[in-house]
């Protein structure tokens, strides 16, 4: 009896023990399975740092530590290495914290850490080899991939494979349904960011960073990429001299004047003309589509290409200040046919007034399609009852136009005026199209780019002096901002919504 | 100028319109008035058509002049009285724009976009000749076309993928910080592109990307405006479709591909067209970062000094006009076939390309 009882107890005991043991394994199986992952992580970090141990000779200098990973800041590998180091350390901390807090114990955080660190090791190692390879032959570098780099690449690759394998094992074997459900909801929560990832990466590099960096380099006196690459010249004084130099340069004021003139002349004229054409188009029925298509044609053209056509139309052929032209050009021929006298529009020693006139004609020709499109769209949306009511009241056409059409269209008019002003301040291509290459920016034989615009001024400086270019860009931005604000203020008072 | 003339003419018509009802007011018989009104209406219509026709002629004239100039001989182009129709069609102006290389030994002119290795005329190679056998001449329009098509197609495809994924995330998926990110993206639209260009030049110069295809593609891949446009379109597709697809166990990507993309095809076509036109018309950025022969884009090449004729000792204007025609025609053809999509995209965006 007692034997039986004892046996039963023993049996019970061992069963309990066994059960407890299985329970322990069941509960901690995930943790145990992660031990190799943890080792992979640590080794990955060590390997990632390994290439720093190399000794690199560059042009007589012996580089060790981080110097061995690349030349100067921003150049070579330092930047990517720092970024990867940041990613690796953040993920290690996140993984360790996650395990410690038992929050992500069953998630794949640790596997991701292992993958990230071993990947970083491969990247730095191969990066250093590639860097030395590209330097080989120049600056006295003898191409010899450091032993540590090879170590990092070879073992990093093995660890990467191992870590990926671990991740697969974890997700397939260890996870139970609850964990899978958890992963699924986690993925659901983060999926959006994954979809956005490419856009966000590109926008960060090419949109967000430029906003910050343009302010930064605008206060670094005469900043340029070339100077920044050379350690001896890579020191820029921090002051507002870029702005001062831009404003004190007489060419700048010429550019600003040209830009303002072109904008102030072309925007009202093209808007008025577009409004008249749109109203005319709206009051006819047959052939309207054909006219609409014709008036839209200038939009689907290459600004530079058609600028060259305008130049050819206004140009006198074979003209110089001392010789008579063989042909006065088609526009002058038409003027002479109507009894006028020919004008030197774009040839050598032509007046600035004539040049600006040609530019304005071209810009208006170019700006009409968009404005007509928007205004006609607005007109077609106007409720016909207004016009019927006006007819009953016997209002004249003129009155109808000013009292009904214009107020009802005012949101569209405000829209085309505002976009017209913004576009006008960015005018550049049309000047290039008509007045030759970007090096001339004026009639033949002129000097100092007499017809250059603000955007042209910025682009002229981008290649050599980014400091001044960014100062000018900021000035342009400020001008556009102020003008747009004024526009919005005025339209708020005048527009009937 | 003619334009001002038309404008004043139109205003005059309008002014007539103002004065006439008053004179009519004095008429005694209603029938008489309606008859007068009818005549008046017809007169106004005639004036409207006349005005529109004159404006249309002004708008079309540069196209016409470009076409006929491209077909004239140099001699006819320089005639004292400009001819409004070419006496003889000089089609060789067009091949002139495609000239690419000339053999320094026999003077044979090539039209290959890429430099030949052996002269097909005299059979020599550079090694036989002792120095560089092939000299680049003319515009080499073939090469410019090739570069532009490569950049245009790759950037359009990549940009479409990025735009679709982002718009889908903003329209259908729920995640923390969605609204903040969307607002930030819209805020960047206010800033003029010139502000980005300076730093982007610094970035690509640091990455040693100058004079590559990559630099022409990468900086303009993400357009916040297109993301916004497509998101608005995606939002119009009823959410019930998505939920039904989820119940059926359809994956997000499959749903996107099978439902969302077909339903918003018009917007996607508009985006594709505007993006292609953008690559075709790009001038400033390509000129700044990739102005070498191997990567130069068509608009940059067009505005070079490639048409200076060594024999004539002056610019060959008809050939230049031929090149302009070649650059303009694809856009016009695109416009004829996709008029609706282009006009709709433009009326929403207000941007050229």
Give the mean pLDDT of chain A: 79
**Quaternary state of the chains:** heterodimer
What is the level 1 CATH name of the largest domain in chain A? Mainly Alpha
Order of helices and strands of chain A: HHEEHHHHHHHHHHHHHHHH
CATH architecture of the largest domain in chain B: Orthogonal Bundle
Identify the biggest protein-protein contact and residues per side.
A-B, 102 and 100 residues
Question: At CATH's second level, what is the architecture of the largest domain in chain A?
Answer: Orthogonal Bundle
User: What is the class of the largest domain in chain B in the CATH system?
Assistant: Mainly Alpha
Number of E-type strands of chain B: 5
Q: What percent of residues of chain A are in strands?
A: under 5%
The tally of structural domains of chain B comes to 3
Indicate the low-confidence ranges of chain A by residue numbers.
71-76
The coarse silhouette of chain B is flat
Note the topology:
The complex is a heterodimer of chains A (497) and B (353).
Chain A: H1 2-33, H2 35-49, E1 56-58, E2 61-63, H3 78-100, H4 109-135, H5 147-174, H6 177-218, H7 225-229, H8 241-248, H9 250-282, H10 288-296, H11 303-314, H12 330-337, H13 352-380, H14 384-392, H15 397-425, H16 429-434, H17 454-462, H18 466-494
Helix pairs in contact in A: 2-4, 2-5, 3-4, 4-5, 6-18, 8-18, 9-13, 9-15, 13-15, 15-18, 17-18
Chain B: H1 2-25, H2 30-70, H3 74-77, H4 92-98, E1 101-103, E2 109-110, H5 126-129, E3 134-136, H6 141-172, H7 178-188, H8 193-206, H9 213-218, H10 224-236, H11 239-247, H12 252-263, H13 265-281, H14 284-289, H15 298-302, E4 308-309, E5 314-315, H16 317-337, H17 339-349
Antiparallel strand pairs in B: 1-2, 1-3, 4-5
């Amino acid at each position: 009896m007692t034997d039986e009882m004892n046996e039963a107890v023993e049996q019970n005991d061992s069963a309990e023990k066994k059960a407890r043991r299985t329970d322990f394994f069941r509960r901690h199986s995930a943790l145990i399975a992660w031990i190799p992952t943890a080792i992979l992580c640590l080794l990955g970090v060590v390997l990632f740092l390994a290439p720093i141990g190399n000794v690199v000779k560059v042009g007589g200098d012996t580089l060790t530590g981080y110097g061995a990973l690349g030349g100067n800041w921003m150049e070579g590998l330092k930047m990517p290495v720092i970024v990867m180091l940041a990613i690796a350390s953040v993920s290690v901390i996140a993984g360790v914290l996650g395990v410690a807090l038992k929050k992500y114990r069953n998630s794949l955080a640790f596997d991701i850490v292992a993958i990230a660190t071993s990947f970083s090791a491969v990247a730095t190692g191969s990066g250093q080899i590639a860097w030395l390879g590209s330097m080989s032959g120049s600056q006295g570098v003898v191409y010899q991939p450091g032993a540590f780099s090879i170590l990092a690449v070879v073992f990093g690759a093995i660890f990467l494979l191992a870590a990926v394998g671990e991740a697969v094992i974890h997700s397939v074997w260890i996870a139970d349904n609850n964990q899978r459900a958890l992963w699924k909801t986690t993925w659901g929560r983060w999926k959006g960011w994954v979809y956005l990832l490419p856009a966000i990466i590109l926008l960060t590099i090419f949109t967000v960073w430029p906003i910050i960096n343009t302010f930064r380099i605008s206060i670094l006196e005469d900043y340029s990429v070339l100077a920044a690459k050379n350690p001896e010249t890579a020191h820029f004084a921090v002051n507002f001299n870029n702005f001062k130099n831009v404003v004190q340069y007489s060419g700048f004021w010429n550019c600003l004047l040209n830009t303002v003139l072109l904008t102030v002349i072309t925007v009202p004229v093209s808007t008025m003309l577009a409004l008249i054409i749109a109203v005319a188009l709206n009051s006819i029925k047959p052939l309207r589509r054909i006219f609409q298509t014709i008036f839209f044609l200038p939009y689907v053209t290459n600004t530079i290409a058609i600028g060259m056509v305008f130049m050819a139309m206004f140009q006198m052929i074979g003209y110089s200040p001392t010789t008579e032209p063989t042909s006065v050009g088609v526009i002058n021929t038409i003027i002479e046919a109507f009894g006028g006298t020919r004008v030197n529009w774009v040839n050598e020693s032509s007046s600035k007034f004539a040049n600006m006139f040609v530019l304005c004609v071209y810009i208006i020709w170019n700006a009409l399609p968009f404005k007509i499109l928007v205004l006609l769209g607005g007109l077609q949306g106007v409720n016909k009852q207004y016009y019927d009511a006006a007819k009953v009241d016997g209002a004249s056409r003129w009155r109808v136009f000013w009292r009904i059409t214009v107020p009802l269209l005012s949101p569209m008019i405000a829209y085309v005026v505002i976009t017209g002003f913004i576009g006008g301040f960015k005018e550049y291509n049309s000047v290039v199209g008509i007045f030759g290459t970007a090096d001339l920016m004026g009639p033949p034989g002129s000097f100092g780019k007499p017809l250059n615009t603000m955007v042209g001024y910025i682009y002229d400086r981008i290649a050599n002096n980014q400091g001044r270019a960014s100062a000018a860009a900021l000035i342009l931005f400020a001008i556009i901002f102020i003008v747009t604000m004024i526009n919005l203020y005025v339209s708020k008072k005048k527009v009937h919504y | 100028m003619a334009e001002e003339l038309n404008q004043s003419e139109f205003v005059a018509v309008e002014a007539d319109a103002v004065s006439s009802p008053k004179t009519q007011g004095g008429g005694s018989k209603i029938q008489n008035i309606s008859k007068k009104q009818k005549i008046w209406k017809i007169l106004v219509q005639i004036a409207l058509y006349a005005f529109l026709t004159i404006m249309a002629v002004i708008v079309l004239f540069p196209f016409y002049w470009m076409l006929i100039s491209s077909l004239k001989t140099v001699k006819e182009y320089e005639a004292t009285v400009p001819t409004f129709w070419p006496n003889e069609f000089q089609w060789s102006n067009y091949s002139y724009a495609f000239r690419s290389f000339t053999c320094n030994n026999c003077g044979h002119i090539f039209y290959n976009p890429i430099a030949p290795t052996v002269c097909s005329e005299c059979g020599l190679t550079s090694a036989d000749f002792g120095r560089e056998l092939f000299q680049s001449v003319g515009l080499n329009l073939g090469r410019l076309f090739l570069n532009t098509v490569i950049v245009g197609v790759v950037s359009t495809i990549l940009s479409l993928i990025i735009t679709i994924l982002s718009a889908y995330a903003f329209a259908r998926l729920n995640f923390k910080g969605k609204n903040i990110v969307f607002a930030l993206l819209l805020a960047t639209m206010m800033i003029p592109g010139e502000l980005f260009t300076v730093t982007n030049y610094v970035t690509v110069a640091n990455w040693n990307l100058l004079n590559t295809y990559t630099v022409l593609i990468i900086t303009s891949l993400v357009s916040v405006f297109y993301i916004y446009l497509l998101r608005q379109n995606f939002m119009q597709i009823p959410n019930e479709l998505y939920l039904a697809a989820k119940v059926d166990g359809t994956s997000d990507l499959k749903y996107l591909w099978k439902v969302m993309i077909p339903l918003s095809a018009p917007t996607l076509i508009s985006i594709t067209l505007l993006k292609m036109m953008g690559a075709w018309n790009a001038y400033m950025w390509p000129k700044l970062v990739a102005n070498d022969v191997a990567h130069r884009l068509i608009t940059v090449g067009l505005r070079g000094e490639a048409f200076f004729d060594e024999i004539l000792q002056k610019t060959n204007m008809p050939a230049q006009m031929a090149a302009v025609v070649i650059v303009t025609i694809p856009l016009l053809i695109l416009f004829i076939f996709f008029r609706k999509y282009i006009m709709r995209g433009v009326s929403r965006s207000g941007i050229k390309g």
